[in-house]
Amino acid sequence: PATTATEVSVGKSTGDRLSCNTTSFQKKSRSKLVSIPGTRPSVQNGQLIVSTGVTSLDYVIGGGLAVGTLLLIEEDRYDSYSRMLLKYFLAEGVVCGHELYVASAQDHPSDIIQELPSPILDDIASPKPVESQTKPCDPEGPDTMSIAWRYQNLPKVQTALASSSRFGHYYDVSKTMDPEICQAARCHGFYLPEHSATVSPMPEAYVALLKNLQEVIHREGFDGSLPQTKSRNVLRIGLHSLGSALWGDDLCCRDNPSHGHALTTLLYGLRALLRSSLSVALVTVPSHLIQNKALMGRITRLCDTAVALESFRGSERETNPLYKDYHGLLNVCQVPHLNCLVCDLPDNKDLAFKLKRKQFTIERLHLPPDLSETVSRVSHGGLAGAAMLGSSGCGSAGNKHLDF
Amino acid sequence: MLLEVLQGTEAGGFILLQDTVSYSGRHLLKSYISTALKRLHFHNAYSDPLGWTGNSAFTVHQFTLEDVSTLIKQTPQAKAVTLVIDSLSWILRHHDPAAVCQRLQALKKGGAVRTVIVLVHTDMHQRGTVGSIRHLATSVVTVAPGTRGLGAVAKTTRRTKSGKLMQDEETFSINEDLSVTIHSKLSHPGHTHVNTDETEVDPTANLTFNLRLSDTERQAKEKLALPFVFSKEKKSALLQPGPGSGRILYEPDANDDYDQEDPDDDLDI
């Protein structure tokens, strides 16, 4: 039996402060557990987790995506950011050496693989902390605090979410992955127009997808069917835009779909396949087109982790000064309780995301403290209240300078 | 942007024209046809969509990639074909909306046609159907009657391949010869947030006690030496982030028995 001597290592934080519920605890175990590249045991519940490709998303869903579970992403209106998340997920699989399975009814899987972002390989360490918020280290500048000068270099509001131990890689969105790296990865694709000669009525398309996936899992041995000589690996499954009309499903077209259970049956079968094999799946669903909200609730229940994206592009929120630094809002709808009673989540529920060239950041949405008496408060329901209570630091935005 | 929708369409463009019963989009569709196209081949599936008379040239069941491709091949010198569908709503009456979306996607990607321009009457369908077709489109033009009687209002949304989104709202009218005149371009209707510079009220005025400092008082205050104020060099030295923020510096004194070895090492379980 392995000794489980534990060792706490102090985190090597390079200037960013950790919030109280992240931990740099790393379990030291001389274990005989099989270790698969790109995975590690979760500190919260011991499950084997993989990175989603976006480190801030990993933090928000509790450290990472557990192998054997299903992540649902509700697409934003023009499917730009959800598609980006799918590409990050697949790119992380390529970099970690996992196998990929991509299914789409809209674009050919090989097109999706060619568009993957290129990894920033020389800097596996975390990139520089949010530079806009750390002031330069100048003790006598005009903005310096004279009494509280020790706090000068702290960010005014801690919005970036990060955990201390690094897991996952960073990608440069402006470049695509090298073709050699792509070809080194084993990839299985399912393109719906190729699988059915005629327009496929539903639910045959879903049945064909599930059968193909089961066949790939069995053939490649992810469910343990192959003998132990082959080293274990994880299969990353990316399913693009399930439920859209291109899969033959009228879930998005009609208020009362004719086969309302087809997608839910697929998700149920998919989760059964995932639980019995070393695979992890990411599914995107165009929830803004689904008219029946009860159905969307059922779909969310059938997935393990669910995250919804709402982008500001093209809506009136684009010009709202509150949202000017961000590209959209992110809402964590559901997080699974895997072998545990409660799950550990970041306390602040108002999250916004921003896609920068080298990083997809998810930050807490905060309102600057309102110092003027006559500015009218923009009311956002719960948003303003929750954000104001949370995270304003010891400084203030703008020119006013509170020194104490 | 109403007219730019037709220009610069790379292959695989899908332009959707949405109208309602208050303003018909057929005029705009006809003006697009007249400006963009050189030769017009007309296939009539309106008079006999289901082929009941037995000798109709084109039925609604032939709205598939293969049949449209054969039709195009039959026309001589067909290259850079633009497929214009005057009213997808009639096709949606006969086919399942999901199937129509799949066929439109196949036409868009199939390579037989370069651009597809489609007119949809939004009143006739459920929101989900219209939404699904919008989701496939690269450009969407929504027409509505103008408020001030000048013409009609068109809201255009264009999505480029790189994912950029451009939006515009313009008033236009269509002349006798089917050309479009743009009257005015309304800027993107954002919220008009009030940007008034209000003079801030000075809270130290109008008080019964004095909160202001005279000049001598201010100088005395600034001369005061605060405790724990270090010189500039010491401050910057203290402000540099160290190699590890949690270093524990411990000097054991005489009574401490500080053994560096891990006592668990000689456990033999």
From TrEMBL, chain A:
Alphabetic keyword roster: Cytoplasm, Nucleus, tRNA processing
Main location: cytoplasm
CDD domains in UniProt: Elp4 (cd19494)
Any single Pfam family the record assigns to this protein: PAXNEB
GO biological process, one term: tRNA wobble uridine modification
UniProt GO cellular component terms: cytoplasm; elongator holoenzyme complex; transcription elongation factor complex
Pathway terms, separated by semicolons: tRNA modification; 5-methoxycarbonylmethyl-2-thiouridine-tRNA biosynthesis
Keyword hit for Ligase: no
Localization terms from the record: Cytoplasm; Nucleus
Homology family: Belongs to the ELP4 family.
Function: Component of the elongator complex which is required for multiple tRNA modifications, including mcm5U (5-methoxycarbonylmethyl uridine), mcm5s2U (5-methoxycarbonylmethyl-2-thiouridine), and ncm5U (5-carbamoylmethyl uridine). The elongator complex catalyzes the formation of carboxymethyluridine in the wobble base at position 34 in tRNAs.
Protein name: Elongator complex protein 4
Automatic annotation (TrEMBL), chain B:
InterPro entries: Elp5 (IPR019519), P-loop_NTPase (IPR027417)
The family this protein is said to belong to: Belongs to the ELP5 family.
Pfam families: Elong_Iki1 (PF10483)
GO BP term (any one): tRNA wobble uridine modification
GO molecular function: tRNA binding
Protein's pathway: tRNA modification; 5-methoxycarbonylmethyl-2-thiouridine-tRNA biosynthesis
UniProt keyword terms in alphabetical order: Cytoplasm, Nucleus, tRNA processing
Protein name: Elongator complex protein 5
Compositional bias annotation for Acidic residues: 253-269
Region (Disordered): 235-269
GO cellular component: cytosol; elongator holoenzyme complex; nucleus
Subcellular location: Cytoplasm; Nucleus
CDD domains per UniProt: Elp5
Main subcellular location: cytoplasm
Signal peptide: none
Superkingdom of the organism of origin: Eukaryota
